[in-house]
Amino acid sequence: MEIVSTNLGEAKTVEWNGKSIQTGIYKYPTHEPLLLENTDVANDAVIDRKHHGGLHKACYVFSTEHYPFWKEKYPNLDWQWGMFGENLTVTQLDETKIYIGNIYNVGQAVVQISEPRQPCFKLGIRFKDQNIIKEFLSHSGSGTYLRIIKKGIVKVGDVFELKEEADIPLTIYDYYRLATNQTKSKTIMELASLSKGLRADKQLFYKNKLTK
């Protein structure tokens, strides 16, 4: 995986169901390096701290390979990197092969795959169509959040180099299907219950589900 764009956003006020709300989903290429910090990306707007940012969602990564599919579906948008609210747009991020918990060196930072992104209505606001929520859920390309193990600067051209592969083969895609109730596979649930790459509360949740 190679970084092709570093993206940041500012808080933007939009209208939603008759109310004014703020969102940080409008991210755009910066052409500058980013500093990955423990709970977010420096100088990036993170509005809803309940669902974005924090130790397990410090940075969002999305793949260039998914863009053609969405460009064809939404040809009238002003397309550029950062459309999905990602901080890092990268090549060759394959959610069906990469494990939750994998650790990578990238630039000056050390990062860990933590969990896939689950879309909310704010993605629909950026795409000017709430239908994208269901479409995104049914697509394999969720992107992934990162946990920042070592803070550091990353830039365009930096490559994710595998430092340590997770010992539990739970792919981003399989966990995405489990977390969004698209599968009730006990095999995947068991992997989730054992994956140290997942948050402890998520592990416990699936352990309890297996015993019911």
Provide an overview of this structure.
The chain has 212 residues and is α+β, with helices and mostly antiparallel strands. It has six helices and twelve strands. An eight-stranded mixed sheet has the order 4-1-7-6-10-9-8-12. Helix 1 (67-73) links the parallel strand 6 (59-63) and strand 7 (88-90). Helix 5 (186-194) packs across helix 6 (200-211). The chain is globular, with a radius of gyration of 17 Å.
Task: Itemize the secondary structure elements and their pairings.
Blueprint: E1 3-9, E2 12-16, E3 19-23, E4 27-29, E5 34-36, E6 59-63, H1 67-73, E7 88-90, E8 103-106, E9 109-116, H2 121-127, H3 131-137, E10 144-150, E11 152-154, E12 161-164, H4 172-179, H5 186-194, H6 200-211
Parallel strand pairs: 6-7
Antiparallel strand pairs: 1-4, 1-7, 2-3, 5-11, 6-10, 8-9, 8-12, 9-10
Helix pairs in contact: 5-6
